[in-house]
Task: inverse folding
């Protein structure tokens, strides 16, 4: 076993891969070979570090030096300065503080300081394509403990005591779910993993699968032991090629070590895992639709009961948990339910991973203890809003969730507190909005998504959401009428009460929550034909004020030639032909073009 | 995987590989590798440290480099940080001295006084 004096960790998650980390690894390999360092320094391709905004990310151990936005040209300097001479390259070290001396170790970067990583503990630390590294960080110890020291009842008992609730959004207690399936009598049972992550802007599950695939496999095997199943299915989106590849490698490696397969650890427990690729339908994240899709049928939900714990995949008792839920299981078995229950809030134990996106400085993945106020996530960890703009709202729970206004920014993140204010935990997407975002348009965006993704099986969702979308589209185009808000509310109420599955039942939420907190914006659109955020194009008006010197720059830029005026005289915009492209405002050097 | 013991064996073997990335890393051997250090022959010294630590399969030991600490005439310099103890600075280290430092200091915890900065400056 070779000892390396330094490890260079290069992020191989989707974010950093698309910002060019593969080329960095190539360059590192080449330079290390050229300098005869290949035997002293190890290059490791890891999963996501979470700070995708600043990618590609490179970390050098033992110092823990954190480099961000590394370019291929920079690799030469890191090798010649840091790796050969031991002088960290200061200009490349990530800094998120105003301090002149950037912290050199990632442990002191504000983005990480306030986080508590349980589900993500191995992401960005281990090589996900090497089972030995996972084992080195206590991998498969939990499975060993469960199989050799615990009874299935004991495992379920620990899960119940831990207070772990489903991380896919519903928040159903995981232990209880397992217990239902355990109590269902059947020769054949199944363990399923929901990796059909479909909320716009959410990528928690992808990062876990890419960075720590074995944690999910191990947890599924533990679940299989607990409920008496010997077969597992992972339903993962085909749009996640890196995650799929690493899952396949992980399954192969686990089989080679007989950590999956027959008679694991010499016990009579056998467990195998299959992968099924989803074709990108949002509704397949719904449990009954997901199972229908695994079976090879059309991905449509069916009424419940019977619940999957009684009659699920191939009509057998089945449990379905989300990727992040599984990522917590091994830690609970290893460290005990009490350890897990000591984290978080009273009814929401443990941690939660969020994908921060939208108008925020540190776009990326964060894991925080439950009960942390929103403010801390957005301003301390997320680094606040770019460009000095004002924070307006944050959208959680994706198309099923709602918007939380700035007045409620001190709300602690818990399942129940979020529902109380009209949003939900959801799977963990967190989209931050600033003063320029129009809340009516945000509602329209999410509804557009659900209308598109509705499977069409039940009329409330198929027809009802479309009617709602049509009203919203009218409003943002300036054709809203009195009574539209009331119509939206009636439709929303009926759809929530009658839709077949979670997709339809929650589809009106983005509209209801924006109506609750931003009703005045809806009214401004309808009554005054005005968009307070200045976002809705149809309601915009560009005008030229007295500052105009008649330079003609705007008239030349206008793509539809609707600006007229003589040289050195004030120009005017013909509103009937204006397409509101904003070119004139961008070209004007005198601040004479106004938007309103 | 037939037994728990096999899993433990893999873990022990693999842990040595990832030790560097754990927060609780123990002893750190830091070799001065600025221009002065390299010119004075720090590289072979560092390589010998890595080799010795490998040979003895020592755990919780990391070898890293640092820049110039200003006493270029005493290079190659090696500092050893042990948790809970004051750092020890060895000066004018040659590859031949490394074996003793590893055996006596890192393994047995007794400082090789004659190689330290105090001895060199006292002359």
Result:
């Amino acid at each position: 076993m070779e000892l390396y004096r330094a490890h260079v960790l290069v992020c191989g998650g989707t974010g950093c891969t698309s910002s060019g980390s593969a080329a960095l690894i190539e360059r590192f390999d080449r330079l290390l070979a050229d300098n005869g360092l290949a035997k002293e320094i190890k290059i490791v391709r890891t999963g996501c570090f979470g700070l995708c905004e600043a990618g590609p990310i490179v970390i050098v151990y033992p110092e823990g030096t954190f480099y961000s936005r590394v370019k291929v040209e920079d690799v030469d300097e890191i090798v010649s300065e840091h790796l050969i001479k031991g002088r960290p390259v200061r200009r490349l070290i990530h800094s998120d503080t105003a301090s002149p001396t950037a912290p050199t170790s990632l442990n002191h970067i504000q983005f990480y300081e306030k986080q508590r990583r349980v589900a993500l503990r191995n992401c960005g630390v281990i090589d996900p394509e090497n089972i030995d590294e996972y084992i080195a960080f206590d991998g498969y110890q939990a499975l060993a403990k469960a199989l050799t020291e615990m009874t299935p009842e004991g495992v379920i008992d620990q899960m119940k005591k831990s207070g772990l609730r489903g991380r896919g959004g519903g928040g159903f207690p995981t232990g209880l779910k397992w217990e239902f399936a355990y109590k269902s009598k059947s020769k054949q049972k199944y363990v399923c993993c929901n990796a059909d992550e479909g909320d716009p802007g959410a990528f928690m599950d992808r990062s876990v699968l890419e960075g720590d695939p074995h944690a999910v496999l191990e947890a599924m095997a533990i679940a299989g032991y607990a409920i008496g199943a010997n077969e597992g299915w992972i339903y993962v989106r085909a749009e996640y090629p890196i995650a799929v590849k690493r899952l396949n490698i992980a399954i192969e490696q686990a089989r080679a070590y007989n950590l999956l397969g027959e008679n694991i650890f010499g016990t009579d427990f056998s467990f195998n895992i299959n992968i099924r690729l989803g074709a990108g339908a949002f509704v397949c994240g719904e449990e009954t639709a997901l199972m229908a899709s695994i079976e090879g049928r059309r991905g449509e939900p069916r009424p419940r009961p019977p619940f999957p714990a009684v009659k699920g995949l191939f009509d057998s008792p089945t449990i379905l948990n989300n990727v992040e839920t599984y990522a917590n299981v091994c830690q609970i078995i290893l460290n005990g339910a009490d350890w897990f229950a000591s984290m978080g809030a009273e009814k929401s134990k443990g941690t939660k991973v969020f994908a921060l996106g939208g108008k925020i400085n540190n776009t990326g993945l964060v894991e925080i203890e439950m009960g942390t106020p929103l403010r801390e996530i957005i301003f301390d960890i997320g680094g606040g809003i770019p460009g000095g703009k004002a924070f307006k709202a944050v959208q959680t729970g994706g198309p099923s969730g709602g918007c939380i206004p700035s007045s409620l920014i001190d709300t602690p993140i818990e399942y129940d507190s979020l529902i109380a204010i009209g949003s939900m935990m959801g799977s963990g997407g967190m989209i931050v909005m600033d003063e320029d975002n129009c809340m009516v348009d945000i509602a329209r965006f999410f509804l557009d998504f659900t209308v598109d993704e509705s499977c069409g099986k039940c009329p409330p969702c198929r027809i009802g959401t479309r009617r709602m979308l049509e009203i919203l589209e009218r409003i943002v185009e300036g054709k809203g009428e009195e009574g539209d808000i009331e119509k939206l509310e009636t439709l929303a109420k009926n759809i929530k009460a009658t839709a077949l599955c979670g997709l339809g039942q929650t589809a009106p939420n983005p509209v209801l929550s924006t109506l609750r907190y931003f009703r005045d914006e809806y009214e401004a659109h309808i009554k005054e034909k005005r968009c307070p955020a200045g976002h809705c194009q149809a309601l915009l008006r560009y005008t030229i004020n007295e500052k105009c010197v008649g330079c003609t720059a705007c008239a030349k830029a206008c793509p539809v030639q609707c600006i007229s005026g003589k040289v050195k005289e004030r120009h005017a915009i013909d509103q009937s032909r204006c397409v509101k492209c904003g070119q004139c405002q961008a070209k004007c050097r005198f601040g004479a073009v106004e938007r309103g | 995987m037939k037994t728990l013991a096999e899993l433990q064996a893999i873990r022990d073997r693999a842990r040595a590989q990832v030790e560097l990335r754990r927060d609780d890393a123990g002893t750190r051997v830091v070799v001065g590798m600025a221009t002065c250090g390299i010119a004075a022959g720090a590289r072979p010294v560092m390589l010998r440290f890595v080799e010795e630590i490998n040979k003895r399969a020592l755990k919780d030991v990391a070898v890293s480099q640092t820049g110039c600490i200003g006493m270029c005439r005493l290079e190659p310099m090696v500092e050893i940080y042990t948790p809970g103890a004051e750092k020890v600075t060895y000066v004018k280290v040659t590859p031949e001295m490394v074996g003793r430092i590893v055996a006596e200091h890192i393994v047995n915890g007794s400082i090789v006084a004659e190689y330290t900065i105090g001895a060199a400056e006292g002359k």
